[in-house]
């Protein structure tokens, strides 16, 4: 049977036409899909720029439905949910990303970090801690450690905070020696409340070694000696304080006076206080000097120091304290006048956080307002 070339000549053009039509149909469909996804995506961006978050979320949901495999759209949607406070929806988006088997390693680490932020914002600290620990050895390690440090400080888990601070210090992520000293001091305080003086002493030694210029470990060390009835060692610890952190002496004037009385070394205490007052006219140091003078009659200017201080600093606090011991011509008017002055000067005796401005009647090593460490100067509000 002979093969008819006519069918071949007719079939080739027909096959070409059918192939061309099929390719045009697929290309048109692909272009339509590519146009639909970016359109929703750019619509969402436009809403974001106009701070219309509800409409932006709707647009991104539409974009994700059109292209469910695009991880960037999921990240954008999850971040939007977190910003709006819809943490459960943000968690679902990021957990869905982590469940995908085709996700790249970098995107998986990014999704893990985003999930940890969701838990942090939601206040789920235990789940946030677990999510952050999974970021060790990733590009998000430094951020994760900072967040873990904040969690441990918030939960007062000082041992864990100390371990994280040590890692960050060793990795050159900053100087955390000061914080490390605070964490060790906090642990020492807990041990002291349980009567474990020897263990607390070892922690204070470690704190001094970690941050030799830090004031708190040396003051806490002096308090420990005072608790143990060792005034000579208390005075020695305060001498070390004057040498390594002299600006903090106003915080320890009470300890200094007690130890000086018990050891009979009031002249030594006076010498340290006078030297500090010459450098910085501190109200606490001034009060301590007045107390020393009143303890030893006719050995010093006594309350006249307050008047002398006024020539150096215009202090309402010093003027009020001087007036409290004076006899006025119209003595019957003295009590209400004194009460008014004390009321007016009381806010001036507070301490103020240099980071957030939070004021308190007592000195804090960590600000109760902004949680900053060492943000309270050893000076009263009037002296700032």
From TrEMBL:
It is a single-pass membrane protein. It comes from the Bacteria. Residues 351-375 form the LapB rubredoxin metal binding domain. The gene is lapB. Residues 24-384 are cytoplasmic. InterPro entries: CellSynth/LPSAsmb/PSIAsmb (IPR051012), LapB (IPR030865), Rubredoxin_2 (IPR041166), TPR-like_helical_dom_sf (IPR011990), TPR_rpt (IPR019734). Belongs to the LapB family. TPR repeats lie at residues 37-70. It is found in: Cell inner membrane. This is Lipopolysaccharide assembly protein B. Fe cation binds at residues 353, 356, 367, 370. Modulates cellular lipopolysaccharide (LPS) levels by regulating LpxC, which is involved in lipid A biosynthesis. May act by modulating the proteolytic activity of FtsH towards LpxC. May also coordinate assembly of proteins involved in LPS synthesis at the plasma membrane. Pfam families: TPR_16 (PF13432), TPR_7 (PF13176), Zn_ribbon_LapB (PF18073). SUPFAM superfamilies: TPR-like (SSF48452). NCBIfam families: PRK11788.1-3. PROSITE patterns: TPR. Keywords: Cell inner membrane, Cell membrane, Iron, Membrane, Metal-binding, Repeat, TPR repeat, Transmembrane, Transmembrane helix. Its main location: membrane.
């Amino acid at each position: 049977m002979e093969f008819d070339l006519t069918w071949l000549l007719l079939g080739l053009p027909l096959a070409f036409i059918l192939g061309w039509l099929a390719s045009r149909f697929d290309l048109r469909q692909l272009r339509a899909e590519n146009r639909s996804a970016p359109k929703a995506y750019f619509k969402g961006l436009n809403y974001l720029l106009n701070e219309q978050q509800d409409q932006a979320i709707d647009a991104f949901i539409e974009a994700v439905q059109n292209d469910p495999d695009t991880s960037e759209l999921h990240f954008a949607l999850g971040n939007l949910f977190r910003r709006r406070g819809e943490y459960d929806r943000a968690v679902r988006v990021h957990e869905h990303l982590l469940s995908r088997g085709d996700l790249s390693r970098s995107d998986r680490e990014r999704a893990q970090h985003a999930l940890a932020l969701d838990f942090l914002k939601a206040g789920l600290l235990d789940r946030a801690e677990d999510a952050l620990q999974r970021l060790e050895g990733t590009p998000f390690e430094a951020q994760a450690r900072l967040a873990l440090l904040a969690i441990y400080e918030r939960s007062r888990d000082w041992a864990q905070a100390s371990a994280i601070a040590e890692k960050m210090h060793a990795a050159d992520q900053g100087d955390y020696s000061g914080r490390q000293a605070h964490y060790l001091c906090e642990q020492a305080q807990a041990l002291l409340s349980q009567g474990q003086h020897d263990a607390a002493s070892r922690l204070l030694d470690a704190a001094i070694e970690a941050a030799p210029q830090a004031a708190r470990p040396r003051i806490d060390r002096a308090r420990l000696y005072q608790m143990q009835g060792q005034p000579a060692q208390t005075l020695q610890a305060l001498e070390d304080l004057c040498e390594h952190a002299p600006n903090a002496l106003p915080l320890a004037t009470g300890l200094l006076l007690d130890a000086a009385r018990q050891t009979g070394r009031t002249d030594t205490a006076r010498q340290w206080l006078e030297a500090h007052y010459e450098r910085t006219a501190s109200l606490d140091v001034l009060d301590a000097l007045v107390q020393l003078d009143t303890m030893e009659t006719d050995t010093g200017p006594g309350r006249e120091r307050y008047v002398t201080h006024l020539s150096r600093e215009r202090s309402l606090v010093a003027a009020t304290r001087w007036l409290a011991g004076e006899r006025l011509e119209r003595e019957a008017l003295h009590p209400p006048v004194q009460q008014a002055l004390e009321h007016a000067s009381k806010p001036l005796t507070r301490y103020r956080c240099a980071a957030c401005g939070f004021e308190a009647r007592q000195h804090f090593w960590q600000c109760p307002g902004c949680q900053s460490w060492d943000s309270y100067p050893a000076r009263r509000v009037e002296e700032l």
